[in-house]
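User: Could you walk me through two proteins back to back? I'd like the raw sequence and the structure tokens for each, with a short line separating them so I can tell where one ends and the next begins.

Assistant: Of course. Protein one, sequence then structure:
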Amino acid sequence: MVKGLAELNGDDIAVANNSMYDCIGFLDHLDALLKVYIKAETEEERASLNFAFPVEKIENEIGYLVFLQMIGAVYNPKDPPLQEELKNKPKGFVPFRYLLPSVNLNTKPTLPWDSFSLPKLIYKEEVENMYMTFDIKSKEAKTTSDDYLARVNFASEFEANISSMTNYPRSKELLEIYKHYLLAKDLGYEVNFLAPLEQKALPPQDSKSFENLLRNYVHDHFDMIKQKNISITPKFVDSSNILWEALKSSADQLLIKIVYLELNNELALKTIRGDLKHEKDQGKTFSQISNTESILDILCRDLEVFFVENNINFRDSEGIRFPKVKEIKKLVGGPKMISRITDGDKQSIKGFAKIGEYFKKYLIKQENPDLALPVKSTRDDQLTTGEVYEILSSKEQ
């Protein structure tokens, strides 16, 4: 029986942490097999490779099951054979073969009570000064425990409730407004409350009442979440314990390893999946597989990595968008990427319009309809109150 994240004690966290590193080792083994597979000339050579060993090892690791909880994976297959496969598996289990093509660098391992997405650390003065240079060194710097001066600690219940607030659109809006309001005042910036129609600043007396109203609304949302007892807090290990940060760090490394296993072995995995789905493809060598499709898929794989590494947003509330020339051109390696997009398959699918459409289909076809992964985003799919107001106003006009 696999424990929920809140039920893990110190020994459980240590075991899960070490287990995730074992998973990373098995992923390296799998990566090596895929590299051999891509070079194999005969069906006999390919058939001799034992992919089942590292995959089964990963699936049996406690760290893998804890990782699935941290990314919020939910797997509900409709196919009877797949349902049968899950009967003897722990709750929350997802077969690795379905997880692999579904995760991406936007998937974020999180803890349900953690309202911070990054470590809550204060470094020594010299380290903080290095970060304030804002140069390449500060971007690529790696710190150790010797560099830490302190860790900011909040009560578990507070963090859990704040984390829960971000799950509700209006609570999240108010929380963001209030955080920025307090920070602006602390930094000495003027904050005005504007009349909705005239767009003029309200008198100081009215502004003071609106400040209290904002504060009260935030408190009310926090208190309501607290009363409903919907937040999750760890039972045995305080949320500020460094063991949790170590576990999250291991989960982040495991995620990156899984994502790049898929991206760096796209052709081999595509062929294996094709072999499993279509008997007519059995026995084909790589030279017999459509070269056009391979070129385009490799291009899309490289584009996805390029966009993520350069923080180019290609997914928004409306779906998948293909970046424009000007967004790519200014980046290191951008001109070369533009040239590849222009060339495409050097036949009928080339240029930004056609490659953009192919890129969207490429991302969509990797999704597994039975596997749900929560989208971690700074924006909710639901309309905000302000957007509803704008829509109603435009209709009235």
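----
Protein two, same layout:
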Amino acid sequence: MLLFLCSAASIASAQSALSVLENRLCKTWKIERIEQGGKITTADKSLNDFVMIINADHTVRQGMYPDAMITGKWSFDETSMMFVIKDDTTEQEYHMKVNSVTTDELILQDTSSISAVFIHYHAK
């Protein structure tokens, strides 16, 4: 019986392990610039403190650090490259396509906007 429980526990932990892409997402990101319709807006003082902290336990905190942070849960579908954040307070979902993720850069596309909006982050 003990062997069965140990096997079940190791299977469960293996199933919940993060993929390589999910591991790359899990860090603190700062906005670098936003591109919309060919116009580039760099992070000025109003966006300089905006961070998105993605944790391996599928929780996320985002907002103006440190005073205006909201919490939520995140999910990621590698097939469609869709990254979804669900706000804990409002239960609103934000759907973004991951265009690129490396160890130090993340580019998300806001799929709710009519014109393409690309948000460029760098690792903090």
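Confidence is low (pLDDT under 50) at residues 1-15.

Let me know if you want the two compared in more detail.
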